[in-house]
Amino acid sequence: MHLICGLPCSGKTTYAHGVHADLDSVLFSLDRWLITVFGRYSLATVGHEEHIRRVLACRDLIWGQAEEFLRRSVDVILDDGFFLRENRIRCIEAARAVGADAKIHFLDTPVEVIGPRIGARNASLPRHNFAIDPETLRGFVGLFEPPSAREGATLVVTQPNPELPRPPRPKT
To answer: Is residue 142 situated within a structural domain?
Structure first.
């Protein structure tokens, strides 16, 4: 199982697609599920608690499918963000429970790079992305717990070149 971890607009989805292209795998992107099930919305409109309810519901649906693939020895890529250590550890333990190993891919993109990327993305919002305002980004930065190798999974840290609009392709 591959956990794609990083702040919004750090390049997670692009990176996840690169991993997916290199492996016989299945890719689950949380934002795609959220927008497909609930439509595009803003945190300010629905509120934090409702957003969390929606995230947990989609994660439950995703895990139901991911677990089946892992049991069949198919690599699973979870493009989720994984802001919280507790959530990463829970996923790692769940993967182990079905006999799978886990790898955390951390896109360690500086906030100074993310800000302009978010502005550009918001100006031409792709279908399965949420608009993120500066206040929401600051909140996410405050919540984010960088991963470590002590979480029970292999840790791959990618530090995208700030000159490039997208992160480098992963080496899996």
So the answer is: yes
Using one digit for the tens of pLDDT, what is the confidence trace for 99-124? 999 999 999 999 999 989 998 988 99
Q: Which of 54, 42, 37, 51 is nearest to 131 (CA)?
A: 42
Q: How far is CA 22 from CA 56, 134, 168, 169, in A?
A: 29, 34, 13, 10
Please return the burial class of 121, using the count of CB atoms within 10 Å of its CB with bins 0-12, 13-18 and 19+: middle
CA–CA distance, 118 with 8 (Å, rounded to integer):
8
Q: Global pTM?
A: 0.89
Domain count, the chain: 1
Buried b (16+ CB within 10 A) or exposed e, 9-41: bbbbbbbbbbbbeebebbbbbbbbbbbeebeee
* Domain CATH number, residue 84: 3.40.50.300
